[in-house]
Specification:
The chain is an alpha/beta fold and 267 residues long. Helix content is 29%, strand content 26%. It has a six-stranded mixed sheet, sandwiched between helices. The longest helix is centred in the C-terminal third of the chain and has 16 residues. Bound molecules: adenosine-5'-diphosphate (ADP) and magnesium ion (MG).
Amino acid sequence: MIENGGLDMPRPIPLPDGHGAGDAVIEIRDIEKIYQLEGGPVHALKGISFTVRRGEFVSIMGQSGSGKSTLLHVLGCLHKASTGTFLLDGVDIAALDDEQLSRIRNEKVGMVFQKFNLLSQEDIVHNVALPLVYAHVPRHARLDLARGALELMGLGDRLHHKPTEISGGQSQRVAIARALVTEPALILADEPTGNLDSRTGEEIMGVFQALHRMGRTIVQVTHDREKAEYSQRIVHLKDGLIEKVETVERPRQAPIVQLGAKAKSLN
Ligand SMILES: Nc1ncnc2c1ncn2[C@@H]1O[C@H](COP(=O)(O)OP(=O)(O)O)[C@@H](O)[C@H]1O
Ligand SMILES: [Mg+2]
C-alpha cells in the first residue's frame, strides 16, 4: 500500500533541466506551433525548449492564450509541432506519420482532462479498458487490467457504475485509471481540477502525488498557482514562450491518499 503525503517521506530531489539527459521522457527543443487561419497565421508557440526526466512531476502555468493547451497537445502527440524537435521517451516524434503518431500516443501517453471525457453509456470498467482496445489487448486481459487500475484508484467496488452514477472526484479518478491502464511513460493532465470543488481538487492532487511517489512522470497544465505548487517544477508560459522555470522548494503536500485501498471512497 502506497502512502502519500507523509511528512517523514523523503522529498524527491528536484532535478535541473538537464540538456541531453539520458533518462528524459520529454525533450523538446525550439518547438514552434503556427495555426494557419483565414485571417492569417497564429503563432501559438514561438520556440519552447525543456526537458522532463523520468519520475518528475511538472506543472505548466500561464494566462489564458499563453499556449498551455497547444503545448500539452504537442506533448500528447495530438498535434505535431510546426518546427523543432521532440523526443518522447526517446522516440523522435517529428519523423512519424499520422498513424505512427496515434500508435505512439496510445502507447506512451495517458491523458486526463478537465471534463473527464468519459463515455456516459459505458460502465466505468469499460471506460478504463478502452485504450487497451486500441492497443489490441484481448478482451479478458483488458478487463483485468482495467479492474486493477480502478482498484488502485479506490474504485474497485464501482466497476459497473456508469459515469452518471459517481461523483466528480470519482469521475476524475476513473479518468486517471484510464490514463494509467496502458502503463504509459507519461501522464498529461489539462486542468485536472478545473471542474472540481477545492477539497476534491486537493484530493486529486493527492492522487497525483501518490503516483509521483510510485515513480510516474506527470505533467499538468493549470492556471492555479496553488495546484502548481503540488509539483516539483513550474514552467511559466507567456505569449508562446517560456518566461521562467521555477523550482518548487517545498511542494505542498495533499492529504494522504492511499492508493489501492479498496473503495474507502473519498467522496
Ligand atoms: N485550434 C486552433 N486554431 C487556431 N488557433 C488556435 C487553436 N488553438 C489555440 N489557438 C490560439 O493559440 C493561442 C494559444 O492558445 P492555447 O494553447 O489554447 O492557450 P491556453 O491553453 O494557454 O489558453 C491563442 O492565441 C489561441 O487563440
Ligand atoms: Mg487551454
